[in-house]
């Protein structure tokens, strides 16, 4: 949950909902989060949920060890490419999940959405076992986010 006193809690957001997953390179954690979120959205039939991702300084490609970790759990990394995320995109988001960086320097000053910093280790250069642990932590957080989102949309 956000620590910003003027933020709109997720439970108070009406459909449609836009969620952004952001990290520096958009080559690891945020790509994992996006893939898991797309899967959760589809599994739960939450068509009103839009998912965007990007980085503040995008890499040229997804980290190979992250792509391997995605394949291990049935996620397809083939068409996923790091990209920049813009303040204009973020301004339209209801929830912004960062992977270990603050939204303070990312989101526009007037943005009042729900900011979450998941504070996950960077998989860049990590061994496969460590990346698998990061992947599983991302999956768990995405599921919890969708549990919360689904409960709010049911109200």
UniProtKB/TrEMBL annotation:
Q: Where is the Phosphotyrosine protein phosphatase I domain?
A: 17-148
**Does the record's keyword annotation contain Transmembrane helix?**
no
One annotated GO biological process: response to arsenic-containing substance
Q: Which Pfam family, just one, is annotated for this protein? A: LMWPc
What protein is this chain from? Protein tyrosine phosphatase
List UniProt keywords, sorted A-Z.
Arsenical resistance
**Which InterPro entries does its entry note?**
Ptyr_pPase (IPR023485), Ptyr_pPase_sf (IPR036196)
Q: What is the lineage of its organism?
A: Archaea, Methanobacteriati, Methanobacteriota, Stenosarchaea group, Halobacteria
Q: Which organism is it from?
A: Halovivax asiaticus JCM 14624
